[in-house]
Design a protein that fits this description.
By secondary structure, the chain is α+β, with helices and mostly antiparallel strands. The protein is 34% helix and 25% strand. It is built from 11 helices and 14 strands. The protein has helices at residues 8-14, 23-31, 52-60, 71-81, 83-99, 120-127, 153-166, 215-222, 228-245, 282-293, 324-330; strands spanning 2-3, 46-47, 112-114, 130-133, 143-146, 169-173, 177-187, 192-203, 206-212, 252-262, 268-277, 314-320, 336-337, 347-353. An 8-stranded antiparallel beta sheet has the order 11-10-7-8-9-12-14-13. Strand 7 (177-187) and strand 8 form a beta hairpin.
Length: 355
């Protein structure tokens, strides 16, 4: 059974198995219900991500409890998905990279956890332009842009609400981004396997799409900003970190988001661990599409046919329209639609030429 539950991050953030996700998230999951089958097919239940809300839903559908994760396992997934784990990885990687001579490619400051609302203003002043993040959030949700000396009552109220519900808020310097990307992994009880790279693009912090390309092409693209050796060192260090912190505690996919930013003097810096997603990701979907499903024309099919697809010539995007007619207009230029739309659909995931 394949389950696409894009509301997963919201469910982790809420923490209550009785939480009712927003209708928009549920609609996305319904319209694109077959999405995870592009990543993995097999026996058992294969969800986008495991959480208490999904477990309760499956139990109510008659799925036996023994086929589902225990509450303790779900608690560990939620713990590992907290931003403090990404911060721990960030600190580990920064220390090791500095020892290896890559310290000049790292941002001067690192994110901090703020647990008292009275500390938010002084923390923002220290960073200058800043971004506040909820400890559990994803896909552009749970972010707030803050400027020193200009914090509004709404800004303070937002931070106070997050601290009240999740115990803290993460504050970090707002960087001028040049490129978002991620490293993808699969974890089992005893090992961590590297799955590849994901090159994606956002708009105001919200996910918009992925470039479909080989690992080699993405590495060369990133190498225009920073040394390829730096990226390979980060891969090695993340394998070490995930084996120590995740292996034996979590089985499944994980994506570690990172970005390259402007250093203010014409060069580039690397933020090596911005977020760790203990679930499937759109980047993993893009990786699978390119590696396993694209034919010679860049069109997805269940298995390759013909020559290798052209690196970086296609993008995978999530499309939305409040009307079916509007959605179909947005899909007119698609070379392939991964989640076929039907009357009533508002969401679809499709592949487009990278124009």
């Amino acid at each position: 059974m394949n389950v696409f539950n894009p509301e997963h991050d919201l469910c982790l953030a809420n923490g209550d198995p009785n939480f009712v996700p927003p209708e928009s998230a549920l609609k996305f999951g319904k319209d694109c219900s077959g999405l995870t089958s592009w990543i993995e097919n097999g026996d058992g239940i294969i969800p986008w991500g495991w959480d208490a809300v999904l477990k309760r839903r499956l139990l109510r559908r008659g799925i036996p409890d023994e086929l589902l994760p225990t509450d303790a396992e779900l608690g560990r997934i939620r713990e590992l998905s907290h931003r403090r784990m990404a911060m721990k990885a960030n600190d580990f990687i920064r220390a090791k990279l500095s020892e290896r001579g890559f310290g000049s490619y790292l941002p001067a400051s690192a994110p901090v956890i703020v647990e008292d609302i009275s500390e938010v203003e002084t923390t923002v002043e220290r960073f200058g332009d800043a971004v506040a993040k909820a400890p559990w959030s994803g896909s552009g949700k749970g972010l707030r842009w803050l400027r020193p000396g200009e914090l509004s009552d709404s800004d303070i109220g937002w931070c106070r609400n997050v601290i009240s519900k999740q115990g803290s808020v993460i504050v970090e310097r707002r960087e001028h981004l040049r490129q978002d990307f991620a490293m993808l992994f699969r974890l089992s009880s005893c090992k961590v396997d590297y799955e590849g790279l994901s090159l994606f693009f956002n708009e105001n912090g919200m996910y918009r799409g992925n470039v479909l390309a080989s690992d080699r092409w993405i590495l060369e693209r990133l190498g225009q900003y920073i040394p390829e050796a730096l990226i390979l060192n980060v891969k090695e260090l993340l394998l070490e970190f995930l084996e120590a912190e995740f292996a034996g505690r979590y089985s499944g996919y994980a994506g570690v988001d990172m970005f390259i930013c402007d250093d203010g003097a014409g060069g580039s810096l690397l933020a090596p661990s911005v977020e760790i997603n203990a679930r499937m990701t759109m980047g993993l979907l893009a990786r699978r599409l390119f590696d396993r499903h694209l034919d010679g024309d860049g069109c997805p099919g269940r298995g390759k046919s013909g020559s290798l697809p052209a690196d970086g010539h296609f993008v995978m995007k999530v499309e939305y329209s409040p009307s079916y007619e509007g959605l179909m207009r947005r899909l007119e230029d698609a070379v392939s639609v991964l989640t076929p739309a039907s009357p009533g659909s508002q969401y679809a995931v499709a592949v487009f030429p990278d124009l």
